[in-house]
Homoserine dehydrogenase (Brevibacterium casei S18), 856 residues
Amino acid sequence: MLGCGVVGSEVAARLQSRAEALEERIGAPLVLTAVVVRDPDKERPGVDASVLTTDAEAAIDGADIVIELMGGIEPAKTLITRALAQGSSVVTANKALLAAAYGELMAAADDSEVRLEHEAAVAGAIPIIRPVGDSLAGDRIDRIMGIVNGTTNYILDQMDSQGWDFDAALASAQELGYAEADPTADIGGHDAAAKAAILSSLAFHAPVTIDDVHVEGITGITAEMVETAKDQGFVIKLLAVCERVTDSPAGAGLSARVYPALLPRTHPLASVHGAFNAVFVEAEAAGSLMFYGQGAGGAPTASAVLGDVVSVARRKVLGGRGQYERPFHPERRVLPISAITTRYHITLDVVDRPGVLAAVSEVFADEGASIELMRQTIGEVDDEGIQHAKLVLATHENTDAALSRTVDRLGDLDVVRAVASVIRAEGQ
Amino acid sequence: MLGCGVVGSEVAARLQSRAEALEERIGAPLVLTAVVVRDPDKERPGVDASVLTTDAEAAIDGADIVIELMGGIEPAKTLITRALAQGSSVVTANKALLAAAYGELMAAADDSEVRLEHEAAVAGAIPIIRPVGDSLAGDRIDRIMGIVNGTTNYILDQMDSQGWDFDAALASAQELGYAEADPTADIGGHDAAAKAAILSSLAFHAPVTIDDVHVEGITGITAEMVETAKDQGFVIKLLAVCERVTDSPAGAGLSARVYPALLPRTHPLASVHGAFNAVFVEAEAAGSLMFYGQGAGGAPTASAVLGDVVSVARRKVLGGRGQYERPFHPERRVLPISAITTRYHITLDVVDRPGVLAAVSEVFADEGASIELMRQTIGEVDDEGIQHAKLVLATHENTDAALSRTVDRLGDLDVVRAVASVIRAEGQ
């Protein structure tokens, strides 16, 4: 085992406490031969001190299974590559590494005919990798939409249920330990983007990295936006969307994107509260599926790691090759967000006078974008005595580029005093 | 393939339409060598007529994989046993057979070192067998609570959302094709009980059959019960509960039971609407997980069958043994419902006079059962001029036997005119 933090300690403790059950399920005992740590003198409750070492290479050599829980790109990548090359199977929870080098590492596993398992790298304890990779292997996955970051889901859920503003919800998340002191990776959407890259690579057998994922975080979400969404029967969630695109201005391909979006309150993902995660999958034959559970935490993540360890160990006991060359489609490229079809909800602060709707409509028509729904409510009279109105527009599906241009041009109209908010809508 | 009804036709069609993708994922082509039907002259769109046959034994002999979609105990059992004995792996969707002979068939598969897969037999398209059997193999499953029958969920959901009575909801289910002309297996809870037996066998490595499962159906659920539940923040669902019991008056063991029960509206299972299925799993390390999707239908069930076929075929291509002796604990017996700890919600029609609460409380105290919550509302004055009251009692956890006896004795009290309803509560 490489690394022994919160998850690692839990894995080590459970390897001991569940030894009998694990041996029964595998048909052979699991022996923890080495735990690689920076400081082997630090006491680790539940971990046998005699297996602690700083020598990663010696620990790897000859191991049947290497469990990588260090995180980060290096030295994890070099060590995993070494393990795979010598014929060890690898179990990892390292989302950053997989989001950077999924294709390369899987190819290395295939070459050595061993396994590289990573259930814990996406949505913690929720079995999502095996269902997508195995259970749906006879089906065609069209779309995956996930709430894969617990911190942001907690923040948005508190804003929705308590009426808090973003800062208050973030402070609460930090107090409860859901958010780090520097919450950028979570609230900026980067953590979710790493998971979107892994899910896309797995579901579509394509080389998707975090750099291919379009990312928008939740820092721009205001209490007012949440309130307006609520009034209209929506909830705002940070979604990771992975999609097979058959037709777009940029051709066929994939979409991998992370952004806050409106979801109808009747959507299964809308009832995912607190720091929970859930992944919604649409497949051609299976229809809609959802997987729900805890996305983080020592024990839940350890459960996913140990499930992978059992799976790899069983295969070892049964004999045969561990893996062969997986399908891989480098031609399945991720299309830019501009070519993807989305829906916008746009809130405008406009001057309340005849001709406003005509001016707004003309911009949409000009960009080839179409409006599904328009709602105007009377606003305040400003200091200059001008009557304002609030105009909420929900668009039909259009390319994101056309909608984005439409928003820019709406902002330039004389009658529009401000574009109060813009948010995409999903799940309809 | 044995049998070619709605699911079988879909499987055959998808083996053709997805041939390239399947070959890519397996590393070898899948060839449908024979489809065993009663009437080979009947036209089956999408199925090559030349592989249709009535000779099941000839079709099985030499097949790498046998897909059993006949349903029922015999001849399915004899044919599956023949296939396993000769070294073919088997994929089945046959819940009746597995609920009767899970242990026996799995032992036959183990003896021949081949696979017996059955993802489609529980909750249709939802990957639940693989997550429970594989992903959570390193964890300890404590409890499974499932909505595993779409027909009854549709009926209860319509009663809840539309205010319909049971008969109207059943008629609607029949009209939409969710319920059979003879709906007994669904509304009596027997279909759910078969699935509870399979889930229990799988999760607890124990020989649980449908005869071990305590079953109550939904025919006694009235519009008034649904309404009362709603007022109190509950929804009524038909639940299949599979539980590890460490301590009970009858010792340690398992519980497998199916009955309609109150669930808090905040519970993830409460938001499972229409004919959808969902399985809620509680594991020691992973915590709470939920799996949601379509529980029936040709295409969803075919998706699950094909996922199993790909899994078995991959293993064949990789070489090695298909299976070894699985853990099996015949000592893990299913305890009678009387020994299981549950909660009741009891509604009484009582005479509104001093001493009623004392009389009721005394019965509880006498049976060692305790009341969590009591709510009294004024009722009508009857023909004899006597003022009635409605008394709703929610109990703490007690053995089902004690609660059941309490209800009997409450009914015998002079002040109690009628036990209006009794329903268990779960998920708190």
